[in-house]
Write a structure and sequence with these properties.
- The protein is an alpha+beta fold.
- It is built from 22 helices and 23 strands.
- The chain has a 15-stranded mixed beta sheet that branches. It has a four-stranded antiparallel beta sheet with strand order 16-17-21-19, with no helix packed on it.
- Residues 139-332 form the Peptidase M28 domain.
């Protein structure tokens, strides 16, 4: 112990002057945290229950049998892709469910009764910016109830059996469909009570998108009786299903989710999804918005590489995932079907939840109101504890309180700049990788993110503190105290962040709250034990107290990466995906590294240690820009394209044709637009689709949905000489009659449309005409949205002609000039014959590491 003389107070003060640890202990320090990650985080993310086999059924009569679900999925996927309008989806699969429900009914306990209904429905609603219209789509609906039960409040369980073009749909969403069948079997075979009937909705048109759920909740006879929902979907294939939406405004649902054996849930996932940052949607939104049904939305999120591809097969779906999901859904179904809240759900509407699991071991949840109180209390306690710590520093060091506060202010400024520098370095790497056309280098090899983004963040967070501590090594305030001030300044930054996020109702502020809470626990321990006077004991206490938060935050960070990385392969080419990863890593580094990085300052050659991370960043950049950083692999992590081999015809007002050409429409799904450029150019001369958009309505192209229009800047049109062989007749649009409305300046156009089961209808007005009304969904008209308008139309069993009307008004010209422009896109998305006739030659031009979702189509436009 040294004795220093304090000239102001004329007292001798004892404090410890620690010697720095040798630099070669630093690898052991970092290795400690890496071992924790491998032993806890990595194992728990992949931890799954042991799947039960058919041979286990006798000893587990109340349990979900994973092998049964797997066997059922094998039979379902043998049908092949189940696209709306195809025989496979509308006939074969419907019969499959009739047969499977009959098997369940044959095994059922006599106390239960079944009612099966195959719904056919037509309707329309707004989906984002387009009218989503359907005709004759189907749902297979099964109600399971106790005989004599007159309760009219039902539990709804939903998943969809249709799939996208070319995909067998094992993960999305066949896995959830067969899980429902097995849950139905286990409940029906038991002798346990069922206070409320359960409606199992096997949804036949989710991929179109979300049409069948809209049909059920707005038209089915049981829809108004459904008081709570379990929605099951998939954005991947296997792994653990995550609960990512709850309620809304019904926190009691989490009370029952707490009973599941394998919890995996997070408020952050809910807020990210509802903010539109995920390129997907689920039926949950339809049930919520059109039926007011609260519920739980659960989905697979791992291995999103095979999502919506032909590689979404049974052989890549782990049997253990069936057990994980089946155990949870079975427990939820039993609990919610007997929940008294279903009898009066409005009485239990109490606001939003904050919910999160810890490594899948247990679930924590509380209301949003409670979270505000907790956040405020933790913030206030944190500031008080820091104030006490600063006071004790002044007492123990002999420095005046104002002197310590001055140092604290300087260090707080350095910390703010350091956090900004950390973000800046990560973003700089992201911009550089994109500038040299090497974005997505981590798409297959996730470990590259450590060097590309975590290392520069550590450099940014530690460089300025290291320089400051070196320049102030003769400061009377000891190294231990100065390092503590850096930790306190980081805590103050996080408290400010808590206050901001809480004030704007971001429930995920609980992350920051937990980070601050554990830091305050460490500080209180150090203050009580007086270890804050002894630098290394202080550091040990900090390390011990931060094991849990480090484990939790790296766990969530890994889950987020495993979810978002495959999604970047289908998020379009308009934005740099490396920026997303850089920001994500910076945000999580604030939480899992913010209180650990300052401990680097206790090692000798701190600057050298920091420079090692900088050298590591440069090394990883070199790796990423070489062939080692090539982002794709065939089958397991392919690059995605959508392709239409199309014939387009554009007519003039006088009936002549201004455009009549065939071509290949290529829609790249990710940022690496040029990686297969040479191969694509072998098809023909490429043109950006946006080149046509100034002159033609919706670019004069067979856009499949509104997302295709948003992607026009990086989509390609390649004219070719050969005309595609269309499986059936081209769409036929017939003007049946025109009728005057309220005088000569208003007119109604009556049309009839026939064509394939997937069509798009584009509507625009010409020569100062005004769109007054139409027979499609009225939202665009009511809200005075300017044309052109996009209507997506599909049908199931009912292939009758679509009859529609459009009312227009002209005030500055007559109806002798063109009034309407209508374009019709025809899409033959499930006709295998069409694939082999001409289309296959173009698909063969793409590299082996790509997956191309392709079909033939037409587009034709007219003036009326």
């Amino acid at each position: 112990m040294d004795k220093r003389f304090n000239s102001k107070y004329h007292i001798d003060v004892d404090f410890e002057v620690p010697k720095k640890l040798q630099w070669y202990y630093a690898p052991a320090f970092f290795g400690f945290w890496f071992v924790i990650y491998l032993s806890l985080v990595n194992t728990q993310i992949n931890h799954m229950p042991k799947p039960l086999l058919r041979t286990d059924e006798a000893s587990h009569p109340r349990d979900f049998i994973a092998q049964r679900a797997e066997d059922t999925l094998i039979e379902l996927t043998r049908i092949g892709p189940r696209v709306v309008g195809s025989i496979a989806n509308e006939v074969t699969t419907v019969q499959f469910f009739r047969d499977e429900v009959a098997k369940v009914q044959a095994e059922a306990n006599d106390r239960f009764e079944f009612e099966l209904d195959v719904q056919q429905a037509s309707g329309a609603y707004m989906h984002w910016t387009m009218v989503n219209m359907y005709q004759g789509i189907q749902n297979v609906v099964v109600k399971l109830s106790e005989k004599g039960n007159t309760n009219e409040n039902y539990l709804l369980i939903n998943s969809h059996y249709d799939s996208v073009t070319g995909s067998p749909g094992a993960g999305d969403d066949g896995s959830m469909v067969v899980t429902m069948l097995e849950v139905m079997r286990v409940i029906a075979k038991s002798d346990e009570p069922l206070a409320h009937p359960i409606v199992f909705l096997f949804n036949g048109a989710e991929e179109n998108p979300l049409q069948a759920s809209h049909a059920f909740i707005t038209q089915h006879k049981w829809a108004k009786n459904c008081k709570a929902l379990i929605n099951l979907d998939s954005a991947g294939s296997g792994g653990r299903e995550i609960l990512f939406q709850s309620g809304p405004n019904h926190p009691w649902l989490m009370k029952y989710y707490r009973q599941v054996p394998h919890p995996f849930a997070n408020t952050l996932a809910e807020e990210i999804f509802q903010a539109g940052l995920i390129p997907s949607d689920t039926d949950f939104r339809i049930f919520r918005d059109y039926g007011g049904v609260p519920g739980l939305d659960m989905a697979y999120i791992f291995n999103g590489y095979v999502y919506h591809t032909k590689f979404d097969r049974v052989n890549v779906f782990p049997r253990a995932s069936f057990q994980h999901t089946g155990d949870n859904v079975l427990a939820l179904a039993r609990a919610l079907a007997n929940a008294p809240e279903l009898d009066d759900i409005e009485a239990h509407a109490e606001g939003h939840n904050v919910f999160y699991d810890f490594l899948g071991w247990f679930i924590i949840f509380y209301t949003a109101t409670t979270s505000i109180i907790i956040n405020v209390i933790v913030s206030v306690v944190a500031l008080l504890a820091i104030g006490i710590s600063v006071y004790f520093m002044s007492v123990r060091s002999g420095c005046s309180l104002s002197g310590v506060l001055l140092r604290f202010g300087i260090i707080l400024g350095i910390q703010l700049v350091s956090l900004a520098l950390a973000a800046g370095l990560a973003l700089l790497v992201a911009v550089f990788m994109d500038a040299v056309d090497r974005s997505l280098s981590w798409f297959t090899e996730m470990w590259l993110i450590i060097g590309l983004y975590l290392f520069p963040i550590i450099v940014g967070m530690s460089l300025l503190p290291a320089l400051y501590l070196e320049k102030t090594k003769r400061d009377p305030l000891s190294l231990g105290f100065r390092v503590q001030l850096f930790m306190h300044s980081h805590c103050v930054c996080l408290v400010i962040l808590i206050i901001v996020l809480t004030s704007i109702s971001i429930r995920s502020a609980y992350f920051i709250m937990l980070c601050v809470l554990f830091d305050i626990v460490a500080l209180v321990v150090n203050l009580v034990t007086k270890w804050h006077r002894k630098a290394y004991w202080f550091a040990i206490a900090v390390m011990i107290c931060h094991i849990l938060p480090f484990t939790y935050f790296t766990y969530i960070c890994t889950v987020a990466l495993k979810t978002l990385i495959p999604m970047q392969g289908r998020s379009g080419g308009s934005s740099n995906p490396d920026l997303t990863i850089a920001i994500l890593m910076w945000l999580f580094s604030l939480m899992f590294a913010g209180f650990i990085v300052p401990l680097i300052m206790f090692f000798r050659k701190t600057r050298t240690i920091v420079l090692c991370f900088l050298a590591g960043t440069i090394l990883f950049i070199i790796i990423a820009v070489t062939d080692a950083g090539f982002p794709y692999q065939p089958k397991t992590s392919a690059q995605r394209y959508s392709l239409i081999y199309a014939h387009r015809i554009l007519h003039n007002a006088d009936g002549t044709t201004r455009t009549d050409e065939s071509g290949v429409y290529v829609y790249p799904q990710d940022r690496r637009l040029s990686i297969a450029e040479d191969e694509i150019k072998t098809i023909g001369q490429t043109h950006k689709v946006s080149e046509f958009c100034e002159e033609e309505m919706f670019c004069g192209m067979p856009l499949y949905n509104h997302r295709w229009h948003k992607a026009r800047e990086y989509s390609l049109w390649i004219p070719v000489n050969e005309q595609p062989q269309i499986p059936t007749a081209y769409p036929t649009l017939t003007l049946q009659e025109t009728t005057e409305l309220d005088g000569s300046m208003q007119r109604r156009f009556n049309f009839s449309l026939e064509g394939p089961d997937h069509m798009t209808i584009f509507v625009n007005v010409k020569n100062n005409a005004k769109l007054l009304d139409w027979s499609f969904n009225e939202t665009l008209i009511r809200e005075n949205e300017p044309p052109p308008h996009f209507v997506y139309f599909s049908y199931g069993l009912d292939n009758s002609a679509l009859e529609f009307t459009i009312d227009v008004e002209k005030t500055t010209s007559t109806f002798d000039t063109p009034t309407l422009e209508i374009g019709i896109g025809g899409h033959w998305v499930h006709h295998e014959i069409a694939r082999s006739q001409g289309l296959g030659a173009y698909l063969d031009r793409f590299p082996s590491y790509t997956y191309v979702q392709a079909w033939v189509g037409t587009y034709e436009s007219w003036y009326f």
